[in-house]
Amino acid sequence: MKPAIPMTNGRPHQARKRFGQNFLHDQGVIQRIIDAIHPVNEDHLLEIGPGQGALTRPLADSGARLDCVELDRDLADFLQKQFSGRDNVTIIQQDVLKFDLASLVDGEEPVLRVIGNLPYNISTPVMFHLLKRHSLIRDMVFMLQLEVVQRLAAKPGDKNYGRLGLMTQYYCDVQHLFNVPSAAFTPRPKVSSAIVRLVPHQQFPVAARDVGCLQVVVRTAFNQRRKTLKNSLKAIISEERLMSLPLEMGQRPENLSLEDYVLISDALSDELADSGTSG
Ligand code: SAM
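Above: the input record for the complex with S-adenosylmethionine. Below: its predicted structure, written as tokens.
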């Protein structure tokens, strides 16, 4: 059976560019994404940007509790009607960037499974907004721009390695699952797409004393990619403290691992504590 099409003012809904609307229609791709998520009855799912419901229907059919956050009022109304008889589905008309994940759960356990073919124009802010509540999340499966997925998964020395990958890998294990052709969407996006799985660490393999310091160090290092670390980081930390670390400071920022950045971040935390300033 063909899924129902939402109507706006008596006409079929036109994709809204400002909301990053590229709707999935390829059933093969939709099934591959659902297989990767493998939703089961006991799950608590959160879908970001359900749109016309391409992923929402098979997710709902799993019987799992499914909460959906959609900004577009017309689409939220449409979905509300589509799923009115389904006790396991709740449609929330809201901007996900203003939505607090903690409102969905009672305890502190990592129970939420987050899914989304994300609006590409705000995908990075959405991921970092969700990561503020990383301890409540079991895993996340997202459709993103391929280039963003490559940056998320990049390792030291890769040309895509930088701030986005480092800060995401600080919180999560990142798996680039598969690529999706533009022909799978209506309208077709101008960029290539890919599916990524992010699994927040339950035990952080490497933890900075102050994650704010880590952000400052990584941002400062990658703002001047061509400079050596010694030259770029001396703006925020004394050369003496920097040179006391067991790291080669003549390297470029793309050559250091997350562990190396955490070492520098902790040194910055020490320096700020010594000087009586907090990070
Ligand atoms: N999930 C659908 C699919 O796969 O066909 C639609 C995906 S479309 C790329 C992105 C969806 O996110 C749209 O439905 C759009 O209206 C919604 N959206 C855009 N900005 C949003 C925001 N700030 N909060 C919640 N949803 C948003």
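Notes for the reader.
The longest helix spans residues 258-274.
The chain has a mean pLDDT of 95.
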